[in-house]
Amino acid sequence: MKWTRYETGFSAIQQGMVITFVFAIFSFLLSQLLLTACFAAVFATLAYQNRYFSKVGQHFTLKVKSKQNRILIGDEEELILEIENGVVPIWNAVLTMSIEDAVLPKEVPLKNYSGIYDLTVPVAVGSNKKIEIKIPLEGKRRGVSRITRVVIEIPHLFGDGFVMMELDEPIYYQSLVYPKITPLDGSLKSSPFKPGEVEQRQSLYRDTFQPVGTRDYVPTDRFDQIHWKASARMQKLQTKEFLPVSSQNVVLMLNVIEKDRKSEDFERKVERLTSYAHFCTSHQIPYSVAINIRTFGATPYIFIPANQGKIHFLKVMETLAQISDKHAKMPFEDVMQSMAAKGQLSPTIVLVSHETNRLNSLCYKWSKQYKVILDHAYEGEEQKWDMTQPQLTKIDSFYPSA
Predict the structure, then answer these.
(1) Terminus of the chain with fewer CB atoms < 10 Å: N or C?
(2) For residues 89 and 389, what is the distance between their CA atoms, to the nearest angstrom?
(3) CA distances from 87 to 95, 128, 130, 153, 274 (A)
(4) How far apart, in whole angstroms, are the C-alpha atoms of residue 335 and residue 252?
(5) Residue 236: how many CB atoms within 10 A of its CB?
């Protein structure tokens, strides 16, 4: 590994070596053997210290065992560091590691600087030895936590000074802290405007593979829908009755542009969208996700195609854990129009956004063809989305252990 070395106190050691060597020579010339032995011992000590600190830290390596962890807010994990040393042993060293504050180190001395925790760990490792250091971490807030800086400081054995080594290589490690999950009150009703497989009393479509009975024939009925056996039995024409069905696919659209004078608007919107994704996964409803954060590619915004199941839920949660209010955004209405033009809209549309005049106009237009839900309940003080403690649900088992 590549380390940058910073050394302090070596000039004092070298000056002491010169002074003690001169005094030892003079003492020897004056036949002061005891005094000569004392100066020689001091010279040997300083020479050993100079030699030791010129070689210490060579072939010193630091690795992180787990490359990526996934946890919920309030859950705990362990950051496992594997340290391997070279020939020269290291004593009384201090390892300082800077980590982003999505996670909170526990039971470790630390300082917080503008979203970065500096945690310190004592280190002592012998010659050609390998040790493990386990640092307990706790999920503090939604986001991504990475190790940004690693420094090890080795103090001088005698006197002031130290050798400090700073790692020049990046450490491939990150902790994903998922958004808080709050069970969704109510339910998502399927749209009656699209054919599908979900039973619904009021729908424009019928499933011809699920007959539920017969009724008297009327002139507007199709000829192929006549039930001939029932007609012969009833002595009058009978028409087949089929189960009314509709599609229940959902598209979840998130507007990350914050409302004026709302500092926590971004996080509350993300939590609200997470609740909808949790509800759809629990009820096996296929859903897609669109977020008005700019990306590269043919689709200039974040779009996750429709799917269902645990793997799809984890993909959505990882995306929501990585987005930030500092990312470049695009107008939410432009995303809505783009999805409509590409035919990416589902029969049921959930818009997690604050209200705007242009947004209300598009919602009114879409409501003639789709089931549109404009959700801004996170703004109300009486809502349950302001709870500080997350609740465990049956979807918590979706998260794989790191």
Answers:
(1) N
(2) 46
(3) 19, 5, 12, 18, 52
(4) 12
(5) 10
**Residue 379: Cβ within 10 Å count:** 16
Q: Which residues contact 232 (CB under 8 A, 6 or more apart)?
A: none
**Long-range contacts from 115-123, C-beta under 8 angstroms, 24+ separation:** 116/148, 120/94, 120/95, 120/96, 121/94, 121/95, 121/97, 122/92, 122/93, 122/94, 122/95, 123/83, 123/90, 123/93, 123/94, 123/95, 123/152
For residue 399, give the nearest of 158, 179, 119, 209 by alpha carbon: 179
CATH of 250-398, one of 3.30.479, 3.40.50, 3.40.720, 3.40.1000: 3.40.50
Angstrom distance (rounded) from CA 344 to CA 342: 6
pLDDT digits (tens, 9 = 90+) for 41-100: 888 877 877 777 778 888 888 888 877 788 888 888 888 888 888 888 888 889 988 888
CATH architecture of the region 61-178: Sandwich (2.60)
Per-residue pLDDT of 362-378, as tens digits, reads: 888 888 888 888 887 66
